[in-house]
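Help wanted!
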Amino acid sequence: MVSKLALPWRARASSQLHWRSWGDEFVVYHAGSGDTHQLDPIAAELLKSLAQEPASTFELVTRVSVSLELEADDDLFEYMEKVLCTLSRLDLIEQS
Amino acid sequence: MELSSLTQCELNTQLRHQGLRLRIGPFIAQIRSSIPSVINGIQQLYADYPIEQESGFADFHVEVSPPRNLRRWFRPQVLFLFDHKSPFKPLPYEQAFPVLEWGLNWCVSQFAHNYLTLHAAVVEKDGHTVIMPAPPGSGKSTLCAGLVARGWRLFSDELVLFSPKTGEVSPIPRPISLKNESIEVIRSFAPEVVIGRSSADTAKGTVAHMKAPIESVRQAMMPVAPTWVIYPRFEAHASAQLISKPKGAAFMRLIENSFNYTLLGLQGFEALTGLIDVCDCYDFSYGSLDEAIAVFDALEPPSTSLNICN
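Answered by r_m:
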């Protein structure tokens, strides 16, 4: 049985996402739902990364830690799991 | 032609019969009413407004009149009618003029979708505008009235009309709605301003309206780009304090203050982010009008920087 952590996440309707940022504050408008969300830099990087290419939680931790120059430790892993849950609840991403 | 050039008889006739066609900022409101407090309120508080004498298009056809039922014999009531239909339940007859004002606010917030509309006060000085969104009871209208009494141009104490096409805010200067203690605060602060009749026991407490300065009315067709978004909050005895507000947080709060952001869809997102791009944003607490006005007079316009991600 494949671990859930290894299953790839993908962005839902990434072409319908419209972004704006002010420094490290990000907002994204989802044209499909009409919802607007404020995201922190990690959530924004994660969503943008998934909009480029699906990835598992493990792969995402590596990607985000490299792009944001963060240590890929347990704290980051735990935080990213929470962010993935939140983005999934907002219907911005889904797991295969 | 201004409303003040009408004789009492002409004003009565227009309001009672064909309707008074009043130009308020970018809109023409055709108003009918035979209620004395409405006629007097319009005569006193809209004296400087242009009126259209020719019949023709009006953005809003409104009427304030008693409902046709037996209630006229006991606890009489008043209805706001839009296109001959009432969107609201009747209110006490004594509240007829505030009902007109609330109804006109409703018309703009419901139908002016060529603008991004926000619930906020707007004032302008030297070509720079302050947008002040705030919930009821935060001292927004009082601060707006104080600023206007000290020379700031009134755009509105209730409504922001932000054009997605031009990136400018259009004025819609109307009487400023003062509530409860703020009525006496403004009477004492600026004895020269005209404040209309008070209506007690409304849903907002006692309400009275302050006349817009004639200069603001005459410049009502002159839009200006926004400069600052400031969230005011009155705190008794507090010193004036202006604290920079992160733009993301300011943006999300502006969504809460918008009437039609969701309806405008992507255009609303682009408009609102564009507004935040060019504005400096602050939280502002104050306990004294004089101190608050000194802070506003000393505001420095922002240097604009954009950071757009696709």
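OP: Thanks! One thing I noticed: The radius of gyration of chain A is 13 Å.
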